[in-house]
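User: Okay, second chain of the day. Same drill as before: sequence in, structure tokens out.
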Amino acid sequence: MALRKWEVWGLSQALSTSRDAQNHRQPQGRHTTELGRGRGPQPKEASSSSSSSSSEGASSSSNRMGMPSTSQNHHLKSGTASDHLTSAISKFREAYNQQLTRVMYMAGTAMAPALNKAGLEDRDALEKLVVRTIPRPSSRTVLVGDVVAFNSPLTLGTSSDTNEFIMVRRVAAMEGDEMVAASSSDSEEQQVEEHLGEVPKGHCWVLADNEDLKPPEVIDSRTFGYIPLTNIVGRVIYAASTRKDHGPVINNPASVEADQAIIEGEVDVDRLCT
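Assistant: Same drill. Structure tokens below.
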């Protein structure tokens, strides 16, 4: 049967419309299938729930394994910081309340006339000395010219070789200083210098002030040699014989300046001279 031209056009349009409808539905079907299989985008609520559930599971797992939670870690850190602060405050108070000086007596004329000048006329004369303690003696805290109190390397020789006693002498040379001995020549009437080497590291050379005394009348580094800096107890900063005869001790200028505040804060002249 022959079809008219308009009928052929209408049939063609109908077939085209049918194919478009099928093509339009097909992607929806694949999308629905993908959602069903779980490959498509998930709803936000489901994702949030899953993330929360996973987080709770991880936390529960962590707690079951004995690991501290975030809040517990914060508490532990706060407790540790508090302990350190308390310890630091305690050490500060201890250091603040600690006395920076000590008082000792000196006899003899080895350091006259700077110290115990009265001993030149009275053998029984004593002088009170205020010593600024030096916990860690070094080349920065002990200087040439300082009058220092130290544990003598010589022993008393009474009951034990470990017995020690305190001596007071002036530092003449520090570690690294070149030691030179000068002697006069009678024939040429000039001084002859003899180089003795450098003062060893961590040591110093001390001498008595009284130039009229020579070994063995006086004991100093000419007798026992270099002394370790660790033997030094402190620096003598103030001396008092009577209420009228007292005052600061002449040390290295830098030490005098550093000790001024200590003298003003801790030296009680009235109590020292009683």
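The first helix runs from residue 5 to 37.

User: Thanks, on to the next one.
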